[in-house]
Each structure stands twice: as structure tokens, then as C-alpha cells.
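Predict the 3D structure for this chain.
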Amino acid sequence: MKVAAKPAAAEPPPAPIKGGLSKSELKEFKSLLLARKAVLQGDVKTLEDEACKKGTDAAGDLSTLPMHLADLGTDSHEQDISLGLMENETDELREIQEAFERIKDGSFGLCETCRKKIPKERLKAIPYARLCVSCKKKEEGV
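Done. Predicted structure below.
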């Protein structure tokens, strides 16, 4: 008597690639990210407040307006610098938020290009790093 072959069991889906970090290490990186986020949020708020005050004081006094064209140029240059800093810090805040998402999905600590582990030393320096040093150098053309 022949025994009917059992249908092949479906293979389970591959496990998600994990960054290989322990819970305590992830907690440490979360703390670093939260600390940097708090600093950046304070900086952005200060820069926004300063940009809004240019040309008037808090009471709306226009006597602080520059009376010379050179002063206008200086004020404009300072405002451009402040806006550039705000943009950079806002971008860094976005990177930090994306790092929290990678922690949540288990991909934190893995290079997004080569999928190798990002060294912990790099993550301690730049906790929102998404690329290993080698891939970052390639991206920057170094």
C-alpha cells in the first residue's frame, strides 16, 4: 500500500533583519536620541523667536529698525544664517524621528545600503546614522 505524500509545509517568512543590539543598548540610543531632540527643539524655537522679532521688539516698537542700508544687509544676512540653521536642525529632527521608527521596526543599527551592522561607536557619535562609514563615504563621493 502506497502512502500519499504529504504536501510540503509552507516555509515561514524570513525573520526581519535585526540590528543586533540588546535592549539595554537600544535604551541607551533612545536616550541619546531624546536628549539631542530636546536640544534641537529648543534651538529651533529660539531661532524662530529671533526671526520673528527682527525689525521690531516684543512690544512692536519700530525704533529698532535699521536706518542705514548696511544695517539692512547685515540683518538680512543674519536672518539667512538663522533660517539655514533652522533648516539644518529641522532636517536633523526628521532624521531622529526616522531613527525612532527604525528602533520600532528592528532595523536600527543596520546600514540601509549594505545591510551590515553600523558600529556602535558611530551610533554613539551620530545616533540617527542610517549608513555605515563606508557607505556614507561612497554616498558623499569621498
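Residues 13-17 have pLDDT under 50 and may be disordered.
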